[in-house]
């Protein structure tokens, strides 16, 4: 697979002459949260892929559809109206530019910090819309998704046999937890439509470049448009079939560290689509800024050491925001094994 950059002012990444990515249909780990085997399936999926799909998640359909419709309204506004939400630096409205270090994707987005009061985004400046409706849809959705995140983290702790059961979930439930919410809109890409190609053919344009999430856990829900791909342990990229009724869960870098590498954060990306627009909503559960990120003592096997140097979430986040999307952010914090 060759990754090329276009020699024009907007340096999108393209994947050319690559074989279509196989679809991750038969192997995708599926967890039914209402079943007793959920905890063991979650642990296995986090070890093998750092990724799984969740059904019976408990997030009301109504909360999902209200936020989806508010988001669709927002993204349909003229650019100058969307820009009134403030530039994504890092929180606000962003268009094509991701982060501060030159990453570009075929995407526009709203990035919000969600733990204070849902007022951080200047939704009130959006003309013609009722900001309160948007705010309340966000609040209902995030409350329900955070509850699911906690349930999943508690099941992980149980499955890993670690005490107390809320050792992970309390980090994202903490009042000071540094969690983020993202709405991504990937418009259809006319250039791909003209060429008659979409994400199953030989040319692809990057919607959101490959990366791992820095936080503990991320919960993603999208409409029925394809685009999401994850990287398997052997480096193969596979397409994840969209499913608007389910959630997809990513292990983040912080959870990789807390499990001393037993769970791996999943590398993922989104490819642009020539015909359909994709809308995704992602909750990133992060710990408080002063939280020490280190392997849980019971997960350091006898005779083994922590694979990572000590750091706080503040330090990791600061360092992460200085990187490019595709960088290996944890590399800097790995301990060199004594020979
Ligand atoms: C990836 C996960 C989340 O979307 C995000 C992203 C953040 C941003 O968009 O500002 C980052 C990226 C993400 C990791 C490296 C840095 C920071 C863009 C970027 C190039 C909100 C996050 O927390 O980290």
Provide an overview of this structure.
- The chain is an alpha+beta fold and 339 residues long.
- The chain has a single domain (14-333), classed as B-lactam Antibiotic, Isopenicillin N Synthase, Chain (Jelly Rolls, Sandwich), CATH 2.60.120.330.
- Helix content is 24%, strand content 25%.
- The chain has helices at residues 38-48, 61-75, 79-82, 131-159, 169-173, 190-194, 253-258, 313-320; strands at residues 2-5, 13-16, 30-32, 51-55, 92-98, 103-113, 180-186, 203-211, 217-222, 228-231, 237-239, 247-251, 268-271, 278-285, 292-293, 311-312.
- It has an 8-stranded mixed beta sheet with strand order 3-4-12-9-14-7-6-5.
- Helix 1 links the parallel strand 3 (30-32) and strand 4.
- Helix 1 (38-48) packs across helix 4 and helix 2 (61-75) crosses helix 4 (131-159).
- Mean pLDDT is 88; it is low at 1-9 and 197-202.
- Gibberellin A4 binds next to strand 6 and strand 7.
